[in-house]
Amino acid sequence: MKNLLLLGIVVLLSVTALPQTIPNLLTAIGVGSAEAWGDSIYHFGGGTSWSGSTRFATIYKYDSTGWHDYTSMPDNDVWGISTTIKGDSVFVYGGYAFGNNKLRMYDLANNTWQYLANSPNISATYGHTIEYINGFVYLFFNGNVYKYNLSTNSWSQATSLSANATWLFSTVYQGEVYLVGWTNAKFYKYNPVTDNWTQLADLPYFVTGGALKCVDDKIYNVGGSSGPGAGTFNNTLVYDIATNQWSDANIFISANRAYMADVIYKNNFYVIGGLDANGNAVNNVEFIVAGTPSAVETESDIPNDFELSQNFPNPFNPSTIIKFSIPNEEFVTLQVYNSLGEEVAELLNEVKPMGNYLVTFNASQLTSGVYFYKISAGNFVETKKMILLR
Fold it and tell me: Do the beta carbons of residue 148 and residue 139 sit within 8 Å?
């Protein structure tokens, strides 16, 4: 009965939760990048204009008290960087003027930087995008794909696409990378497991340099440009993954803008900074759309040890509850893998205070089969099996 009451609380909170208002950046910045970690947002690099003449080798951090000039990046090649995050590591690639093959790793927990192996020289300081999936950082530029292996600190080439792009931007959904920025308004997804490309429905018009995130099984494209340094948009397009269709989301930002940082923070999609219609940076931070809040709730008893319980119900269709306990404040990741060892969902990736937690996992987009859920909290790592039956 106690667990049922807690689940009722989770549902109520999901209905009434409001998006958090985030103040504007301390300064006008465009062509930077942002990642969320725990209760904070970290904004990396960027510059004051399209020319890239003034650049910010700075990390600005947002927490509950506002934005702060937090720390510095290790070099000044920061205009047009791409970032991706895994656990407490942020991978930072490229950047104008001499970062065409630089890959760095920033340790959020220890505030330290490390230069990793250089990528193949793709002769591009900007216009690329990177995503982390299953132990690899995937680099996309024009039709080329390279992958960086974390365990060997080495690069290899994946299958290229015979298509041209100007300034790619991307998002990940169920282990596949969706990319916008191709010429002629084309839209593709890349599957890292099969190393194959799939052409999807064309966008209503060509757009490059926008903000792209997946929220609740839909992909939102915010703003963007009709070409590098060209005109900009202020509207939002939405792609329905189930029906393979684009439409107008009827969501508008305050002015035409492109080359923004974008981030999912506490289940909500925000765009940060960017360049206006004249190619000058702005400091706006704007909410786009709310995602369904994670069904996470704590129980009142104080745990004495780490524990990962068997999910219930099991087998399940389509939702199940995962319970875990942590005796100290820890950075917690909770991930779901299929029988091939491929990550299909990330349920948690943040700092949690000590307590007992219930997490709802909804597998409505997955097929029947055996899945595994894995928790990492401090030095505690454990994996359990669950079964989805349709």
Answer: yes
pLDDT tens digits, one per residue of 19-34: 678 999 999 999 999 9
* H helix or E strand, kind and range, residue 319: strand 319-326
The CATH code of the domain at 2-6+294-388 is: 2.60.40.1930
Q: Please, is 253 exposed, middle or buried when counting C-beta atoms within 10 Å of its C-beta (0-12, 13-18, 19+)?
A: buried
Token pair belonging to 104: 């760095």
Residue type at 374 in one-letter notation: K
Amino acid at residue number 228: P
Q: Check: CB of residue 93 under 8 Å from CB of residue 139.
A: yes
d(CA 335, CA 376): 9
Decide if domain 20-290 falls under CATH 3.30.2310.40: no
Instruction: Return left, alpha or beta for 28; rule: phi > 0 is left, psi -120 to 50 is alpha, else beta.
Output: beta
Q: Are 182 and 141 in contact (CB under 8 A)?
A: no
- Which tokens sit at 26? 């301390």
> Would you put residue 31 in left (φ > 0), alpha (ψ -120 to 50) or beta?
left
DSSP string, 265-318: ETTEEEEE--B-TTSBB---EEEEEEPPPP-EEEESSPPSS-EEPPPBSSSBSS
Residue 242 CB partners (closer than 8 Å, separation 6+): 217
H-assigned helices in the chain: 2-16
pTM (2 d.p.):
0.79
Write down the domain spans for the chain: 2-6+294-388, 20-290
Residues with Cβ within 8 Å of residue 381, at least 6 apart in sequence: 374, 375
Q: In what order do the strands lie in the sheet with 330-337?
A: 343-352, 330-337, 369-377, 380-388
Please give the structure tokens belonging to residue 78: 């920061």
Contact 137, 131 (CB under 8 A): yes
- Give the mean model confidence (pLDDT) for residues 206-211: 95
Confidence of residue 7 (pLDDT cuts 50, 70, 90): very low
